[in-house]
Specification:
homodimer; alpha+beta; Glutathione S-transferase Yfyf (Class Pi), Chain A, domain 2; four-stranded mixed sheet; globular
Amino acid sequence: MKLYTYYRSSASYRVRIALNLKALDYEAAYVHLSRNGGEQFAAAFSSLNPQQLVPVLEEGGITLTQSLAIIEYLDELFPALPLMPATASGRARVRELSLAIACDIHPLNNLRVLKYLSAELGVSAEQKNAWYRHWVGVGLTALEKRLAQDPATGRFCHGDQPSMADCCLVPQIYNAKRFDCDLSALPTVMAIFANCEAQDAFAQAYPERQPDAE
Amino acid sequence: MKLYTYYRSSASYRVRIALNLKALDYEAAYVHLSRNGGEQFAAAFSSLNPQQLVPVLEEGGITLTQSLAIIEYLDELFPALPLMPATASGRARVRELSLAIACDIHPLNNLRVLKYLSAELGVSAEQKNAWYRHWVGVGLTALEKRLAQDPATGRFCHGDQPSMADCCLVPQIYNAKRFDCDLSALPTVMAIFANCEAQDAFAQAYPERQPDAE
């Protein structure tokens, strides 16, 4: 199994956590998103993934992009140490929490979007940071309410075992910290984050611990 | 089953298509995203969905947000007329295609984002339209390559039966047309779009055919 990854890519970070939680070995191929004008734009990688984004997984004869599709695929292929609940309503809840991050927070603050704001719209660094914090704030405030008011929330996003939702939560909080977002009004989210960070599977996936970290 | 929906919401449109493809009856509750300062911000709706977004589905004793989570939940609860393939690799591919739209195109062009660009960053109408067309262009160009080069693509995104991916594709093309995006270099995408539009399940979900359309 081969994972095309970049240490600071939030979506790659999600998949690294999932692979660790499932105790799956993999070969890493490093794609540097800014060096050489962005290695994701090179011809060989572009033909692997026309979206020119990481992560990409090669496994079971297929080449797969999109972190949530990759995590669910791994969970179906290797059912041990499941990242998805056993019930339809549980799976729905984990997907909902994952998508609330993966669709409604992260894409707005992705590298290519921040670049567009600066280069094409000429926004200042201050405005760019305000944009970043705005979408993190809106998204995590809603997530806090959702998690705090639901008895299905446990030590992790869904009960007392890590799931795909935690694979999404931790990289989002890592990013929020990098951009000095205010996380003080998120007690449930941050308690779950702390419980995740205490686990080796999450710690080993940490960006600065990857071989391609700078 | 009750669906909170808005005729022009792309994510609601996805779920309406899915419900029609699966021949499931539902009660619609209309949430007008601009009237009265935005009905999604009202207290009752905010407590239903702290994200203050549509769609929301009430079914099987749970309240669920996020269109892709809703579609997969419906497909698990009601296996007849499936929207997900029978194999793990097929499901992975359908999720990948769906997420390429739901994460990497649509969130950047959502109503709340366009409002922020105008109100907070003071971008002109022309710049806002260029932003819109840029992300649609980048996203659909990659999707075209992905679909065109893969023999798993058929009359629809995955083979010859509509799937969750088509539920995502059609609302995205509807939006792209509203904003006069150039769709001329997307023969595979547009052939699939035409095949979808010819089906009653897609036609009945069309925004202007909804009771809350203006």
